[in-house]
Design brief:
Elements lengths: L5 H18 L4 H15 L4 H10 L6 H28 L10
Helix pairs in contact: 1-2, 2-4
């Protein structure tokens, strides 16, 4: 994220996301949740998180291996979450899950 953490990003850009969602006719709650989910998923391939993981597991100098392993998983998860959010925005009965 631009600001370094998902929480800080939500605080900094939350108001803008709400206004943009309303202007597009989308649920501000759903769009905020989708953005927060994306920020959390991004931590999977964040350089700092990978270094912490390699250090915590004492698997030094294997940061590239960790990134290669989790990269496909992060793409697959992003596609699944994107599909799920799209269904919640446009497809009944998934739209019933969204708080208005």
């Amino acid at each position: 994220s631009l600001v370094g953490s998902d929480t800080a990003s939500n605080v900094l850009f939350g108001g803008m996301q709400k206004v943009a969602a309303e202007q597009l006719g989308l649920s501000p709650n759903l769009m905020g949740a989708a953005n927060s989910s994306g920020g959390v998923m991004g931590k999977m391939i964040d350089a700092q998180s990978i270094v912490v993981a390699s250090t915590a597991t004492r698997w030094f100098d294997h940061e590239g291996d960790i990134l290669r392993y989790v990269f496909f998983h992060s793409i697959a998860l992003a596609c699944l979450v994107g599909l799920y959010v799209t269904m919640q925005a446009y497809v009944w009965p998934f739209t019933l899950m969204v708080v208005h």
